[in-house]
Amino acid sequence: MNQPTCSSLNLANYERTKAAVAEDPTQGYGTFAAETEWQGGALAVSRARSFAITTDEPTPLGGEDSAVDPMELLLASLGSCLTIGWVNQANFRGIDYRSLKIRVSAPYDLRGYLDLDPSVRPGFSELHYEVEVDSDADPEVLEEVRAAAEKNSPLFDNILRATPIHGRVT
Fold this sequence. Notes:
single chain, alpha+beta, GMP Synthetase, Chain A, domain 3, 2 domains, three-stranded antiparallel β-sheet, 36% helix
Protein backbone atom coordinates (compact mmCIF):
# COMPACT_ATOMS: atom_id res chain seq x y z
CA MET A 1 0.00 0.00 0.00
CA ASN A 2 1.27 3.47 -0.83
CA GLN A 3 2.05 5.93 1.92
CA PRO A 4 -1.07 8.09 2.44
CA THR A 5 -0.68 11.77 1.74
CA CYS A 6 -2.85 14.75 2.51
CA SER A 7 -2.22 16.02 -1.01
CA SER A 8 -4.41 13.24 -2.43
CA LEU A 9 -7.44 15.26 -1.32
CA ASN A 10 -9.04 16.97 -4.32
CA LEU A 11 -8.62 20.57 -3.19
CA ALA A 12 -9.46 21.90 -6.66
CA ASN A 13 -13.03 20.61 -6.28
CA TYR A 14 -13.15 21.93 -2.73
CA GLU A 15 -12.00 25.40 -3.83
CA ARG A 16 -14.45 25.47 -6.78
CA THR A 17 -17.30 24.63 -4.40
CA LYS A 18 -16.13 27.26 -1.91
CA ALA A 19 -15.96 29.92 -4.65
CA ALA A 20 -19.42 28.99 -5.98
CA VAL A 21 -20.98 29.19 -2.51
CA ALA A 22 -19.18 32.47 -1.77
CA GLU A 23 -20.62 33.94 -4.98
CA ASP A 24 -24.13 32.49 -4.48
CA PRO A 25 -24.87 31.17 -0.97
CA THR A 26 -27.90 29.24 -2.26
CA GLN A 27 -25.41 26.93 -4.01
CA GLY A 28 -24.48 25.68 -0.55
CA TYR A 29 -27.98 24.59 0.47
CA GLY A 30 -28.76 20.91 0.41
CA THR A 31 -29.95 17.92 2.36
CA PHE A 32 -28.23 14.71 3.32
CA ALA A 33 -30.58 11.79 3.77
CA ALA A 34 -30.35 8.20 4.93
CA GLU A 35 -32.95 5.48 5.08
CA THR A 36 -32.80 2.66 7.60
CA GLU A 37 -34.68 -0.59 7.11
CA TRP A 38 -35.19 -3.13 9.87
CA GLN A 39 -33.96 -6.62 8.99
CA GLY A 40 -35.20 -8.55 12.05
CA GLY A 41 -34.00 -8.71 15.65
CA ALA A 42 -31.81 -5.67 16.24
CA LEU A 43 -30.34 -5.81 12.73
CA ALA A 44 -30.87 -2.85 10.39
CA VAL A 45 -29.38 -1.62 7.13
CA SER A 46 -28.99 2.09 6.52
CA ARG A 47 -28.52 3.44 3.02
CA ALA A 48 -27.20 6.83 2.01
CA ARG A 49 -26.61 7.60 -1.66
CA SER A 50 -25.14 4.32 -3.04
CA PHE A 51 -23.69 3.12 0.27
CA ALA A 52 -25.01 0.73 2.92
CA ILE A 53 -24.12 0.33 6.59
CA THR A 54 -25.37 -2.57 8.69
CA THR A 55 -25.94 -2.12 12.42
CA ASP A 56 -26.78 -4.54 15.23
CA GLU A 57 -26.78 -4.64 19.00
CA PRO A 58 -24.32 -6.64 21.10
CA THR A 59 -25.70 -9.95 22.38
CA PRO A 60 -26.24 -8.68 25.98
CA LEU A 61 -28.70 -6.13 24.54
CA GLY A 62 -30.63 -8.66 22.46
CA GLY A 63 -28.74 -8.49 19.19
CA GLU A 64 -26.50 -10.97 17.42
CA ASP A 65 -23.38 -8.72 17.54
CA SER A 66 -23.08 -9.12 13.76
CA ALA A 67 -22.36 -5.47 12.99
CA VAL A 68 -21.38 -2.17 14.54
CA ASP A 69 -23.70 -0.76 17.22
CA PRO A 70 -25.40 2.54 16.28
CA MET A 71 -23.64 4.28 19.20
CA GLU A 72 -20.29 3.10 17.83
CA LEU A 73 -21.35 4.46 14.47
CA LEU A 74 -21.79 7.89 16.07
CA LEU A 75 -18.22 7.67 17.41
CA ALA A 76 -16.92 6.58 14.00
CA SER A 77 -18.84 9.41 12.31
CA LEU A 78 -17.23 11.98 14.57
CA GLY A 79 -13.78 10.47 14.09
CA SER A 80 -14.24 10.35 10.31
CA CYS A 81 -15.43 13.95 10.12
CA LEU A 82 -12.52 15.17 12.26
CA THR A 83 -10.10 13.17 10.09
CA ILE A 84 -11.34 14.96 6.98
CA GLY A 85 -10.90 18.26 8.80
CA TRP A 86 -7.35 17.37 9.77
CA VAL A 87 -6.52 16.53 6.15
CA ASN A 88 -8.15 19.72 4.83
CA GLN A 89 -6.30 21.84 7.35
CA ALA A 90 -2.99 20.14 6.53
CA ASN A 91 -3.50 21.01 2.87
CA PHE A 92 -4.30 24.64 3.69
CA ARG A 93 -1.06 24.87 5.69
CA GLY A 94 1.17 22.93 3.29
CA ILE A 95 1.94 20.17 5.78
CA ASP A 96 1.53 16.40 5.56
CA TYR A 97 1.21 13.43 7.88
CA ARG A 98 2.97 10.09 7.76
CA SER A 99 0.03 8.73 9.75
CA LEU A 100 -3.10 10.05 11.41
CA LYS A 101 -5.45 8.19 13.75
CA ILE A 102 -8.34 9.62 15.70
CA ARG A 103 -9.75 7.50 18.51
CA VAL A 104 -13.17 8.47 19.83
CA SER A 105 -14.61 6.94 22.98
CA ALA A 106 -17.51 7.63 25.29
CA PRO A 107 -18.71 6.23 28.61
CA TYR A 108 -22.28 5.05 29.01
CA ASP A 109 -24.53 3.83 31.78
CA LEU A 110 -27.02 1.17 30.68
CA ARG A 111 -29.47 2.15 33.40
CA GLY A 112 -30.70 4.95 31.12
CA TYR A 113 -31.12 2.78 28.02
CA LEU A 114 -32.74 -0.02 30.03
CA ASP A 115 -35.14 2.49 31.62
CA LEU A 116 -34.00 1.57 35.13
CA ASP A 117 -33.18 5.07 36.37
CA PRO A 118 -34.93 8.17 34.99
CA SER A 119 -32.04 10.37 36.15
CA VAL A 120 -29.59 8.57 33.84
CA ARG A 121 -29.62 9.55 30.18
CA PRO A 122 -29.74 6.71 27.63
CA GLY A 123 -26.92 8.20 25.58
CA PHE A 124 -23.28 8.96 26.26
CA SER A 125 -22.43 11.21 29.19
CA GLU A 126 -19.48 12.75 27.31
CA LEU A 127 -17.25 12.16 24.30
CA HIS A 128 -13.46 11.96 24.24
CA TYR A 129 -11.13 11.93 21.30
CA GLU A 130 -7.40 11.59 20.89
CA VAL A 131 -5.39 12.37 17.80
CA GLU A 132 -2.26 10.35 17.11
CA VAL A 133 -0.37 12.11 14.35
CA ASP A 134 3.08 11.51 12.87
CA SER A 135 4.19 14.69 11.13
CA ASP A 136 7.12 17.06 10.85
CA ALA A 137 4.78 19.98 11.57
CA ASP A 138 5.43 22.07 14.67
CA PRO A 139 3.20 21.33 17.68
CA GLU A 140 1.76 24.87 17.43
CA VAL A 141 0.68 24.21 13.84
CA LEU A 142 -0.89 20.89 14.84
CA GLU A 143 -2.81 22.70 17.58
CA GLU A 144 -4.06 25.19 14.95
CA VAL A 145 -5.14 22.22 12.83
CA ARG A 146 -7.00 20.67 15.78
CA ALA A 147 -8.85 23.90 16.56
CA ALA A 148 -9.77 24.52 12.92
CA ALA A 149 -10.86 20.90 12.36
CA GLU A 150 -13.19 21.16 15.37
CA LYS A 151 -14.52 24.58 14.30
CA ASN A 152 -15.41 23.42 10.78
CA SER A 153 -16.60 19.87 11.53
CA PRO A 154 -20.33 19.44 10.86
CA LEU A 155 -20.45 16.35 13.12
CA PHE A 156 -18.61 18.13 15.93
CA ASP A 157 -21.09 21.00 15.62
CA ASN A 158 -24.16 18.71 15.53
CA ILE A 159 -23.00 16.90 18.66
CA LEU A 160 -21.69 19.91 20.58
CA ARG A 161 -24.76 22.06 19.97
CA ALA A 162 -28.01 20.17 20.15
CA THR A 163 -29.60 19.94 16.72
CA PRO A 164 -33.40 19.90 16.88
CA ILE A 165 -34.93 16.57 15.88
CA HIS A 166 -38.47 16.29 14.52
CA GLY A 167 -40.14 12.91 14.05
CA ARG A 168 -43.46 11.64 12.78
CA VAL A 169 -45.12 8.31 12.09
CA THR A 170 -46.68 7.58 8.70
